[in-house]
Specification:
With 202 residues, the protein is α/β, with parallel strands linked by helices. 36% of the residues lie in helices and 24% in strands. The structure holds 5-O-phosphono-beta-D-ribofuranosylamine (GRF). 5-O-phosphono-beta-D-ribofuranosylamine binds next to helix 1, strand 5 and helix 6.
C-alpha cells in the first residue's frame, strides 16, 4: 500500500512507523512525508532514511484551499492510497476530505469521543478521568469524529502532569499506530458506516 504522512512537528509517530518499516514489519511503500512547517523534525526523520519530503508552508499560499490543492495534487502524483496524519496541526477542510482519493487516518491522544481537539491530555487531567489513552480513526469532515479503528487505554495517576500523561499515552501511540496501519495495508480493516471491523486471523 502506498502511503504518505503529514506531520507538523516532532514526528515521533512517524519515527515509529519508519522503525517498523525498516524492520520489514510494515507492508507499505513510503511515497512521501509532507509538512506545513519547513522546520518540522518529522521532515528530517524522513530525509534520514531517504523518504522524499515536501513542505507546504502556509505563507506560500493565498488561502487554505490553495494549500490543500497543492497537497491533493502531491498525493495524486504519488498515487497515495493511504494518508497518515501524524501530529498534523492544520485541520483538513471538508473540501479536502471530499476531494481526496485516498483513505485518511489520524491518531488522537485521548479515548474518543472524549476530549477531541487540541490539548486532549490537558482536557483529560482537568476533567479528572482515571483512564485515558489514544485512538486511531478514519478522518471524516468533523473534528476527531471519524470511525474508530483502534484504541488503547492507559491509567491516569493523581500526580500526573500534562507531560507525564502525554508520555504514557505516546508510548501506546507508537505501538497501536503502526499496528493499525499494518492491518489496513493487509486489507484486514473494513468500515461500514461508523463500525470498523478488524479481521485479524483471516
Ligand atoms: C501525538 O500526541 C498525536 O496523538 C497527536 O499529535 C502528537 C504528535 O506527536 N495527533 P509526534 O509529532 O508524532 O511526536
Amino acid at each position: 500500500m502506498k502511503i504518505a504522512v503529514l506531520a507538523s512537528g516532532r514526528g515521533s509517530n512517524l519515527q515509529a512507523l519508519i522503525d517498523e518499516w525498516l524492520e520489514g514489519s510494515l507492508p507499505v511503500e513510503f511515497m512521501g512525508v509532507g509538512s506545513d512547517q519547513i522546520k518540522a523534525q518529522a521532515l528530517l526523520r524522513a530525509e534520514k532514511v531517504g523518504i522524499p519530503t515536501r513542505a507546504f508552508p502556509r505563507e506560500n499560499y493565498p488561502d487554505k484551499q490553495a494549500q490543500e490543492d497543492d497537497i491533493l495534487n502531491w498525493l495524486e502524483e504519488l498515487g497515495v492510497e493511504l494518508l497518515v496524519l501524524a501530529g498534523y496541526m492544520r485541520i483538513l477542510s471538508p473540501y479536502f476530505i471530499r476531494r481526496a482519493e485516498c483513505l485518511i487516518v489520524n491518531i488522537h491522544p485521548s479515548l474518543l469521543p472524549a476530549f477531541p481537539g487540541l490539548n486532549a491530555q490537558r482536557q483529560a487531567l482537568e476533567y479528572g478521568v482515571k483512564v485515558s489513552g489514544c485512538t486511531v480513526h478514519f478522518v471524516d469532515e468533523g473534528m476527531d469524529t471519524g470511525p474508530i479503528i483502534m484504541q488503547e487505554a492507559v491509567p491516569v495517576y493523581e500526580e500526573d502532569t500534562v507531560e507525564t500523561l502525554s508520555q504514557r499515552i505516546l508510548q501506546v501511540e507508537h505501538k497501536i499506530y503502526p499496528e493499525a496501519i499494518r492491518l489496513i495495508a493487509l486489507g484486514k480493516v473494513e468500515c461500514q458506516g461508523r463500525k470498523v471491523t478488524i479481521k485479524r486471523h483471516s
